TrEMBL record:
Span of domain Transglycosylase SLT: 6-191
InterPro entries: Lysozyme-like_dom_sf (IPR023346), SLT_4 (IPR045795)
PROSITE patterns hit by this protein: PROKAR_LIPOPROTEIN
Name of the protein this chain belongs to: Transglycosylase SLT domain-containing protein
Stored Gene3D superfamilies: 1.10.530.10
Residues annotated as signal peptide: none
Length: 196
């Protein structure tokens, strides 16, 4: 066989082994369009909702804020003198932007040793697990997208200390997450989800 043909076969095999699309859905402002374009998202969100009680729209709004539904999202690089890369801003990765240490804690507690942050079903399950921790530790209702986001961003200890009060930009972002969650909830109530 020619080298070109072998390379083509290898490329096709590698592409077929990928975990699914890494790019964002087309219309991020329409929950129905997102779920219709990516039915695997709806299955993942519903599974997390059944297991952890976190509503689909809260999961979606948080993922929108964290990664814009990009599977392999990472934080930007830090630079010294504006040109020398010094690593990423944090270890956050994937749909949920889970940090390495928090992800490891999730894996240890959930026995999900094969879970990956760039798979939507694992990311949504992680989010349900984390938001339940926020409910247990800080009394945040699972449907309270704004306060769940603040705890998600600051950590449950930071939330308990109200560290977000010194970050007006974060409080504004959390309000946007709540507004998007409300919008997604209203849109989902009109979706014909039974087809998916």
């Amino acid at each position: 066989m020619s080298r070109t043909f072998c390379a083509l076969i290898i490329a096709v095999l590698l592409a077929s082994c990928s975990g699914g699309p890494t790019s964002a859905p087309r219309d991020l402002d329409n929950a129905c369009a997102i779920l219709k374009e990516r039915p695997e998202y709806y299955r993942a969100f519903r599974a997390a909702e059944r297991r952890w009680g976190v509503p689909v729209h809260v999961q979606m709004a948080t993922i929108h804020q964290e990664s814009k539904f990009i599977a392999d999202a990472r934080t930007p690089f830090r630079y010294v003198i504006g040109v020398i890369p010094m690593g990423r801003q944090s270890s956050a990765f994937g749909y949920s932007q889970a940090l390495d240490a928090t992800w490891d804690e999730y894996l240890a507690e959930s026995s999900g040793f094969r879970a990956k942050r760039d798979r939507i079903n694992d990311a949504s399950d992680f989010m349900g697990w984390y938001m339940n921790k926020s409910r247990e530790k800080n009394g945040i209702a699972l449907h309270d997208a704004e306060n769940q986001y603040l705890a998600y961003h600051e950590g449950n200890t930071g939330y308990a200390r109200q560290s977000y009060n010194s970050k007006p930009w974060l409080v504004a972002v959390a309000r946007k997450v709540r507004a998007r969650s409300d919008m997604y909830q209203q849109q989902i109530s009109g979706c014909r989800l039974s087809r998916w």
